[in-house]
Every structure is written in structure tokens, then in C-alpha cells.
Design a protein that fits this description.
The protein is of the alpha+beta class and about 325 residues long. The protein folds into 2 domains: about 60 residues, no CATH class; about 220 residues. Helix content is about 45%, strand content about 10%. The chain is built from 12 helices and 7 strands. A 5-stranded antiparallel β-sheet has the order 4-1-3-2-7, sandwiched between helices. The chain has a two-stranded antiparallel sheet with strand order 5-6. A hairpin with a 3-residue loop joins strand 2 and strand 3. The longest helix is centred in the middle third of the chain and has 21 residues. The two termini are about 40 Å apart. The relative contact order is 0.16.
């Protein structure tokens, strides 16, 4: 894999900790964020390359794990995380992919109460979801948000693109796979029976509706910090609350001591940069109606029509 113009690749450029460990080892890159403590991905990652790197650098001591547990403490979604998540969804749309699936996983219902465990299992779940998508030739497009609430405890929201006609068993198949995956990862049977207060996993799978996609997006962004501001693109002397620009009812979603918001690599920052993609947010949008649009899908469909016309002319 090529390096970035401004330096080596980072953990976020890889879909699994094991892939990144192999890259670091083969490139001779130091695997620690700090000299004294190992990075979170190395402490909690899984795979043969991660195991080898931990053996080379030594296992973390209890005090190291304690210090690592406080790394990346967040009480809300910041402006950079919101922008990355929004741009990832917009870029997916620009490539013809609508986030038509919303999965909510209440990890606390299967005994996951520590942030380090959540980070580990969320990564493993998404890695297996990637393989599930690959097996069905589906896009690897998703974003995730981690939250903590009184009702659900630690839980994750995942918005993903799973075309309704892309596989035969539909929503039921995805739900059954997800339940099986969680059982395999935790060793506990997910709560799914009718009448239970909190199900372990809820899967919402609809047609490719851009409007519903943005409704779900605004919901999972509800942990946005309420005091963040954004400069008005037309008058730099003015500032607007980001929650108003984003059309989000910002409210606390608990403290999380691991990565709070992320996206799959194919719609991540590096992929967007390589494509020269700019969203309405990048271009200075100041109103929610400018952000939550079907413009990206329209542009994709126009490009597709143009390609069909060009192919037709070449044929004749």
C-alpha cells in the first residue's frame, strides 16, 4: 500500500488492527503512540501480526493499561468527527451507495461493560461484516458511532449500505448473521425475544431512501457537542452553532474512552482526498437543508447516464 504524501499511513487507513500491524512491521514503523504506553489498537487488536508485534515490544503492564484506558476520553462528538461522518455518507452517495441499513447493538446486554472490550468487539464485528459484504459482493460502506446511555449502557450505531436486491435473504438474513456474529464474539446469546426491554441488536433495513438515510444520520449524530460553532461562509464575522447547521438536537450520550466515530476505509478521508471529493459542508453550507440532500446521488446518476451514452456512441 502506498504512503501518504505527508508521511506513513495511520491505523485509520486500515480495516483491521492486524493489517496495520503487518504494515508497521514491514515498513519498520514504531507501533507506539507514546513511548511509555502502547497504542489502543495494539493493546486490544487481534490477529497473528498484532500478536507478533506485542511479543516484539512486550506485553502491556497493568499500569500501562490503566493509562491507556483514559486515552481519547470523549463526552460528545466533536466538529472533526461530525465532518468526517457526514463526508463519508455524502461520498458513499456520490458513488451510488445509500446508507439504507441502521444497526443498533446494545453490547451491555451480552456482558460488555468496559470501553476496551467495546472497542475490541466493535472492530471485530465490523471486520466480520466486511467479510460478509465481500462474500455477497456488496459495498464496504459504513459509519459507526459509540454511545453510553442509562437504558442501553454501551452500544453502537452502524449505518451501512446493503442494497436490498444485493442478496437473497434480505433483512432476516442480515439480522440472523448479526446475532450469530455477536454470539460467537461474546459467547452469550443475544437478547431478541419479544417483550424484552432491550434487544441486543435491532436491524432496520429499508429501500434505498436518501431521505431516511439522512434522518438516521441526524439521529446517530445526536451526541454532537452543543456549543460548537461554525463560521458563516458569506460573512466571516458571523458564527453559527454547528448543531443548528447540522439540524441535530444535541444531547449528552455518555462518556466513551475509545474512538467514538469512524467509517470504513472505502469512504474514509484518504479515499475522499484521492477522489478530490468536496461535500456541501466543505463548500460552506450553513443550513441543514443544504446538507441533507439527494444532490450526491443525482450527480452519480448523471455520471452513469453520461457513461452509458459514451459507451453507446463508441459501439456505433
Amino acid at each position: 500500500m502506498r504512503e501518504k504524501p505527508d508521511g506513513p499511513l495511520t491505523r485509520e487507513d486500515f480495516e483491521s488492527a492486524d493489517d496495520y500491524a503487518r504494515y508497521c512491521r514491514e515498513s519498520g514503523i514504531e507501533a507506539f503512540r507514546k513511548k511509555r504506553y502502547p497504542s489502543a489498537w495494539l493493546t486490544h487488536g487481534v490477529g497473528p501480526n498484532v500478536d507478533l508485534m506485542r511479543a516484539i515490544h512486550g506485553a502491556a503492564e497493568p499500569e500501562q493499561l490503566k493509562a491507556q484506558a483514559s486515552w481519547g476520553v470523549t463526552k460528545s462528538i466533536n466538529d472533526r468527527q461530525f465532518k468526517n461522518a457526514y463526508n463519508a455518507v455524502a461520498f458513499a452517495n456520490r458513488n451510488g451507495r445509500v446508507m439504507n441499513v441502521h444497526m443498533t447493538i446494545a453490547w451491555s446486554t451480552v456482558g460488555i461493560v468496559a470501553d476496551e472490550e467495546l472497542a475490541d468487539l466493535n472492530e471485530k464485528f465490523l471486520e466480520r461484516f466486511r467479510k460478509w459484504c465481500d462474500a455477497r459482493e456488496l459495498p464496504r460502506a459504513w459509519i459507526f458511532v459509540l454511545e453510553r446511555s442509562k437504558e442501553r449502557g454501551l452500544h453502537s450505531h452502524i449505518l451501512a449500505s446493503v442494497p436490498r436486491d444485493g442478496y437473497a435473504d434480505g433483512k432476516a438474513g442480515l439480522t440472523n448473521w448479526a446475532k450469530g456474529c455477536i454470539k460467537n464474539l461474546t459467547g452469550r446469546v443475544p437478547l431478541q425475544k419479544r417483550g424484552e426491554k432491550t434487544k441486543t441488536i435491532v436491524v432496520r433495513h429499508k429501500d434505498e431512501s436518501v431521505q431516511l438515510q439522512w434522518k438516521w444520520f441526524r439521529y446517530v449524530m445526536k451526541g454532537l457537542a452543543p456549543n460548537l460553532t461554525r463560521r458563516d461562509s458569506e460573512d466571516r464575522r458571523k458564527v453559527r452553532l454547528l448543531k443548528n447547521v447540522a439540524g441535530v438536537r444535541a444531547r449528552p450520550q455518555g462518556t466513551v474512552t475509545t474512538k467514538r466515530v469512524g467509517s470504513s476505509r472505502v469512504i474514509g478521508a484518504k479515499a475522499r482526498e484521492a477522489a478530490g471529493f468536496k461535500s456541501e459542508l466543505d463548500n460552506g453550507a450553513t443550513k441543514a437543508r443544504q446538507l441533507y440532500t439527494d444532490l450526491y446521488i443525482q450527480r452519480f446518476e448523471m455520471d452513469e447516464e453520461l457513461r452509458r451514452m459514451e459507451a453507446k456512441h463508441r459501439f456505433f
